Amino acid sequence: MDGDQNFLDTIGFGYTQTQPDSPIGEQATPSTQHRSAIIEKGKSNKRKNWCSDEDKVLIAAWANTSLDIVGTDQNRDAYWARISEYYNTHKESSWSERNPNAINCRYTLINRETSKFCGCLQQILNKE
User: CB 95: neighbour CB atoms within 10 A?
Assistant: First the structure.
């Protein structure tokens, strides 16, 4: 072990007396009980991640609902409630139900990433 330390010292790896002491090491750390209370307090009700099959059903729900003629008086909440209703009736029974807010958030993510992909693809096609 002493030989290993000498080797580390020769390559400049390791602690030397000239390095300043860290003020972080002097701070008190919370007890394990306190840390677990913080974790419990910050626990979210987040459901499991979406799988690609769920994404496909979501996109079908959006496309089907977007093509329906309902009128321009439909507000945002009613629109996403209709998409959520379509999704929840056409999903696999083993999948969890999704509320309109979760469906809106997931669709927004898919839409943003798809737009990025299409933009990159268009730049590639424009270079040729």
Answer: 16
